[in-house]
Specification:
heterodimer, A: about 350 residues, alpha+beta, Immunoglobulin-like, 2 domains, 5-stranded mixed β-sheet, 9 strands, B: mainly alpha, 2 helices, elongated
Chain lengths: ~350, ~80
């Protein structure tokens, strides 16, 4: 039943199932979606109403919260009143004085309890002085120690505002591009092999790998467009990375057209092989160099770290790298099917002419 | 069927997928639906696009194979 050489195809499917299972069932870490009010003055007693996501506020025994300015300046909340799992009211008495001379203080909300662990909502409250004063007192700000945080339990994906659950697209949209790049490397390798040996089979291989890679690229553009609609609120932005990948895809579409021409087979194969090498060389600056030189919404561009820091933490890595392998293996499988089909077709027509 | 028309079909097909999926997500009042529950349905749409796209590519390959099979059968 299972033929020889089937193992990598099956492992591709199994790894992809693992990614689908893990990528869709593992919950997000708790986070805060909204907070009211968003500004306050010194000396106020404010009641912050926080709306949580994946939180368990109602069942919490010991819930604590802080408004944090920096690592030493913070105010602890007086009480914790939750109406349900996702809503909590926190009362803070803001000190009369500010810790130092600054117009507006962005305060971060830290919530900590034994079920959800500790999590932060940056820039939750903007604090400004209620009176024109030049006296500053940091002492009321340093009374409340930030300590004894709880840890969240089990594997959870990071919570990011705006992204929310779509952080899971890392396993599909982002992995598609990486798999596309691997397939293009195979394509260009076979193109070089064709130029070295003039064996027509290498041309078939190069073309099949490049075709599936371009298909992956188009999936990447379409899925990215849908993802952008719900996070950046537009299908297409003037982001450099988008425009550059679109150009790269057009270059590769030209390859497909070139390879599909009705022309002398040897000349066409040689032309396509050379074009493929040039297209690959053009792809590298278009996708990896130019987007890094300007600002971009994509991670890894304009000074943002990509595969480091908190953008891709270890829980995402557990599924991101397997997803690249799985999508690559599935692409390779489809490419092999195309190669075998072309081989049979060429054999058949060669025999009949 | 020569390889030119096969490629032609492929290109046509790909544009067709793009044209079909984009308005589908924008027009229908599905926008709010897709944003609900932490935008999880956006992930579902992304996976569906990949799956449908691969399926269409495989159907095309299948059709091409059937045509070749018929050619071979007619020759014999």
């Amino acid at each position: 039943m299972i033929q020889k050489g089937m193992w990598w195809k099956l492992s591709g499917i199994i790894i992809f199932l693992y990614v689908l299972w893990g990528g869709l069932t593992i919950p997000l870490r708790p986070g805060i979606t909204s907070i009211t009010p968003s500004s306050a003055k010194t000396g106020d007693t404010v009641t912050l109403k926080a709306t949580g996501y994946n939180t368990h506020f109602a069942s919490v025994k010991k819930g604590r919260a802080w408004l944090k300015l920096d690592s030493i300046h913070a105010i602890k909340s007086l009480d914790w009143q939750s109406t349900d799992d996702n809503h909590v009211s926190l009362r803070f008495v803001l000190p009369q004085t500010l810790p130092n001379a600054s117009e507006v203080f962005p305060l971060h909300l830290i919530i900590d309890n034994e079920t959800d662990g500790a999590f932060v909502h940056p820039n939750a409250l903007f604090l400004s002085s209620s009176i024109e004063t030049l006296s500053f007192d940091a002492i009321p700000w340093t009374k409340h120690e930030l300590s004894q945080f709880n840890d969240h339990q089990g594997i959870q994906f990071p919570y990011r505002s705006i992204l929310n659950e779509t952080i899971r697209n890392t396993f599909f949209h982002v992995a598609l591009w990486f798999a596309m790049f691997l397939l293009l490397i195979f394509g260009v390798y076979y193109s070089i092999q064709y130029l070295r040996t003039a064996d027509y089979d290498f041309d078939r291989k190069a073309s099949a790998y490049t075709n599936i890679a371009v298909l992956y690229g188009i999936f990447g553009i379409v899925t990215g467009s849908v993802w952008a609609k719900f996070t950046w609120n537009t299908f297409w932005t003037n982001d450099v990375k988008l425009n550059m990948t679109a150009i790269a895809l057009l270059i590769y579409l030209a390859y497909i057209i070139l390879r599909g021409m009705n022309y002398d087979q040897d000349k066409r194969a040689r032309l396509a092989a050379i074009y493929n090498i040039f297209a690959f060389i053009a792809l590298i600056p278009l996708v990896f160099v130019i987007p890094r030189m300007t600002d971009s919404l994509h991670p890894g561009n304009g000074g943002n770290p990509a595969l480091g820091g908190e953008d891709l933490d270890h829980t995402l890595r557990m599924f991101f790298y397997p997803s690249i392998i799985a999508l690559f293996l599935i692409g390779k499988w489809i490419a092999e099917l195309t190669i075998r089909f072309e081989r049979v077709k060429d054999y058949f027509y060669l025999k009949n002419t | 069927m020569n390889s030119k028309s096969i490629r032609h079909y492929l290109l046509l097909n790909i544009t067709w997928i793009m044209l079909c999926i984009l308005p589908l997500t924008s027009q229908a009042q599905g926008l709010d639906f897709l944003r609900s529950t932490g935008k999880i349905y956006t992930v579902v749409v992304v996976i569906a696009i990949i799956f449908i796209g691969l399926a269409i590519y495989l159907i095309r390959l299948d059709n091409k194979l059937t045509k070749l099979e018929n050619h071979i059968k007619n020759e014999q």
